[in-house]
Amino acid sequence: MKANIHPKVYQAKITCACGNEEVVLSSKGEQIHVEVCSSCHPFFTGKQRFLDTAGRIDRFRKKYAKFDK
Fold first, then answer.
1. CA 44/CA 57 separation, integer angstroms
2. Whole-angstrom Cα distance, residue 13 to residue 2?
3. What's the pTM?
4. What residue spans define the domains of the chain?
5. Torsion angle of alpha carbons 59, 60, 66, 69, nearest 10°?
6. What pLDDT digit, counting tens, does each position of 32-65 carry?
7. Under CATH, which architecture does the 10-67 domain have?
């Protein structure tokens, strides 16, 4: 086997926007910040939650407002 081809593995602390923290092994670094995790994602929780839909709808309406006239 070739020497020194494997990435360095860190014990990373993943922090979600909801406040949930988990410690896992990662090659990305020691601190990772995510917006959605398994404790707050609607698929895992069974609850409906809007993340950023208001901004998307406003941008869509603004973009296509000229076609309405």
1. 25
2. 30
3. 0.51
4. 10-67
5. -130
6. 888 888 777 766 666 665 655 567 778 888 888 8
7. Irregular (4.10)
Tokens 């698929």 sit on residue: 43
In this structure, what token pair is assigned to residue 19? Answer: 């406040």
For residue 58, what are its two tokens? 């406003």
DSSP for the chain, please give it: --SS-SPP-EEEEEEETTS-EEEEEESS-SEEEES--TTT-HHHH-----SSHHHHHHHHHHHTGGGT-
Closest CA to 18 of 53, 49, 56: 49
